[in-house]
Write a structure and sequence with these properties.
Elements lengths: L1 E5 L3 H14 L2 E6 L2 H11 L3 E5 L7 H10 L5 E6 L4 H10 L3 E4 L4 H12 L1
Parallel strand pairs: 1-2, 1-3, 3-4, 4-5
Helix pairs in contact: 2-3
């Protein structure tokens, strides 16, 4: 399975990449902006996308809406420091498959990956 990491914080990107590789996923791309994420998602059609909610150019929910409009069927795990029910609801309505709060716990990420893979 392949994964795309969408995260603007380098330390978090490193943690996500290490964890995803440890789980056995092939990380085919890393994007620090929404525009880059949309481009890579359409080009590579990954199986799983980890998507930060706050990016420097476009909010994660808008990124998700755009990749869904472009036909990308990847399982999307939203990752955010904000855990309001409103934000979680918006993410799920936009087409997210799961939601994970920062700070990332490798075991919780593994569980979310297994949930969305099933």
């Amino acid at each position: 399975m392949t994964a795309l990491i969408v995260e603007d914080a380098i330390p978090m990107t490193i943690v996500l990449e290490h964890t995803l590789k440890e789980i056995g996923l092939d990380v085919i791309g890393k994007a620090a902006t929404g525009e880059e994420a949309i481009k890579l998602a359409v080009e590579h059609e990954p199986d799983i996308i980890t998507l930060d909610t706050v990016l420097p150019d476009i909010i994660g929910i808008e990124v998700l809406k755009q990749i869904r409009e472009k036909g990308v069927k990847a399982k999307v795990i939203f990752i955010s420091a904000a855990g309001s029910h409103s934000l979680i609801d918006q993410a799920m309505e936009a087409g997210a498959d799961s939601y994970l709060l920062k700070p990332i716990n490798a075991e919780k990420l593994r569980e979310k990956i297994e949930e969305v893979k099933a």
